[in-house]
Each structure stands twice: as C-alpha cells, then as structure tokens.
Amino acid sequence: MVEEVLTHLLRDKGGTYVDCTFGAGGHSSLILRELKTEALLFGMDKDILVRDKAPEELKSDNRFSFINDNFSNCNKHFLENSLDGILIDLGISSTQLDDSERGFSFQENGPLDMRLNQEEGFSAQEWINTANQKEIENVFWELGEERASRKIAKIICDSRVKNPIETTQDLANIVLSCVPRKGKKHPATNVFRAIRMHVNQEIGELQAILESACLLLKTEGRIAIISFHSIEDRVVKRFFQGKDRISAETKFNSIGGKHIKPSREEIKLNPRSRSAILRVAEKAA
C-alpha cells in the first residue's frame, strides 16, 4: 500500500520522517523521492544486515540516515516534537522471509532462529526446546490464535525428549502430524507467527513505539502503521482511541478513514499483502 502511505503520511514534504521498519528499503526509497531537498528521512532496523543491502540511491542521498536499533528505542534518537511522520510496517520483509538461514518460514528448511537481530536475545530453537508446556500453549494461543495450541504444545514437548527441534522443517512436521491441512493455509502458519512474535517481543516493541510517538511527533504529525493480523491491529486501534496507554492525554485523529485495505490489483501483484491493514493517525493540537 505504498501509494496510500505516501498520500496520507507525507503531510509536510519538507519535514523529518522515520521509517521504523526499514527492511529492504522499499518504502524509504519511494518516500525520499517525494520529499523536498531540505527534508530528512531516517531508516531504522534492528537487523544490522539490511544496511549493507540498502538501495544505492538511499546510501548516496545526504537526506537519508540509517539507525541500527529496535524501533522501540526511537525516543533515544529523536527529540520531543521533532518528527513530522513515523512509518511502521509490521510485516517481515521478503528478504528476511525468503532467507532459509533466518528460520522465519516453513517453506524452506533451515535453522530455527527467527530473530530479527541474530546478535541478541534467544532463538526460536532455544525457546521451543526449553519452555514448559504451559508457556508454549499460551504463546500459541495468545499470539498465534491457534485453536490446537494445547495439542501442538504437548506433542512438541513429547517430541523434544527424543530429539531436539532444530530446524524449521522439524517444527513444521510436528504441527502437520497433529493438525490436518485444510485449504491453502499451512497448518504451521499460526505457530510460526506466534514464535516469531514472542522471540522478538513484537507486541511490547509496538506498544513502546506508540507511546514514544505521543512525544516525538509534532502537532499534526502523522503515524502510519501497517499490520498483518488482528492482534497487532487491535493494539494500534485501541491506542489511537486513547485506550491501553500510559497516558491518554495525547489525542489522535484518524486519517483516510478508520483503516485502509490493499486493492485487488495490489493483492494480485503481491499476494502477501492480502491481510495487510493500514491505519494512519494525526496528532491533534
């Protein structure tokens, strides 16, 4: 939903913007083309590997700077009331998803890692082989909305006694052994998403950047967030409504309607966008 992001986020094309989920640099490249010469754009990503893969047009543009950090630490890099816009795309980038060595996907066999920054935290392999059954159940249910969470968690715990779960294929096969495949959706989809979100503490990261946005955005500054499932979208929606916050003093007004969905044409070109939801809000005076 690039056009929608550009239309609703860039209120002042001479302002200062942050792409908090830089990824492959796709959004940043298109945003920079729209900005004036006096504007500034910062790309943030906790994955240090993406900096070297950034498009050359960004690296050579003095309006652009890269910050290697979690976006939840945005308040450590910017002053209060200094930003005109913040973009957060909560999906895993295609570059990361398609790299079997990162362990995000069950489509290709690889080490069960799933960390966005492989230099910090615990891997999916470490967690799945050490967490107790109840913790695994809760993660699958709360973050994956997986109906068979108890059944899958039990089989995981039984299986790892015999052999540790080390690869994406190991985990996918365990899920397939107890959940029948129906339709196009792979039975392991919810489980992989839940583990990834848990390993990277994604809900906590999202809540932290939302709190920071209240302080960092200028009056009439805007925040655009693309989420890919109901858990993330619910956090964003309730925050914009003034709920589930540390402080509800800052008010936000929705821009472009309550939410924006991808067009049929975009879904045809990029099937991964089919579940995307864009919400844009403006900080009120």
Summarize it.
The protein has 285 residues and is an alpha/beta fold. It has helices at 2-9, 26-34, 49-52, 56-59, 94-97, 124-130, 133-142, 149-162, 168-178, 189-199, 202-216, 230-240, 264-269; strands at residues 16-19, 40-45, 64-68, 83-89, 217-227, 252-260, 277-283.
Question: What would the keywords be for this entry?
Answer:
7 strands; 285 residues; 17% strand; Rossmann fold; seven-stranded mixed beta sheet; 2 domains; alpha/beta; DNA polymerase, domain 1; 13 helices; globular
Describe the 3D structure.
The protein has 285 residues and is of the alpha/beta class. The protein has 2 domains: 2-94 and 203-283, Rossmann fold (3-Layer(aba) Sandwich), CATH 3.40.50; 117-199, DNA polymerase, domain 1, CATH 1.10.150.170. The chain contains 13 helices and 7 strands. The chain has helices at residues 2-9, 26-34, 49-52, 56-59, 94-97, 124-130, 133-142, 149-162, 168-178, 189-199, 202-216, 230-240, 264-269, and strands spanning 16-19, 40-45, 64-68, 83-89, 217-227, 252-260, 277-283. It has a 7-stranded mixed beta sheet with strand order 3-2-1-4-5-7-6. The chain is globular, with a radius of gyration of 20 Å. The model has no long low-confidence stretch (mean pLDDT 92).
Tally of DSSP β-strands: 7
Write down the overall mean pLDDT.
92
Determine the strand fraction and express it as a percent band: 15-25%
CATH top level of the largest domain?
Alpha Beta
Oligomer: single chain
Helix content: 40-55%
Instruction: State the major sheet.
Output: 7 strands, mixed
- The number of domains: 2
Secondary-structure-derived class: alpha/beta
User: What's the overall geometry?
Assistant: globular
User: Could you give the order of strands across the largest sheet?
Assistant: 3-2-1-4-5-7-6
Separation of the first and last Cα atoms:
28 Å
Total count of helical runs of at least 4 residues: 13
Rounded radius of gyration (Å): 20 Å
Q: Any idea what the CATH architecture of the largest domain is?
A: 3-Layer(aba) Sandwich
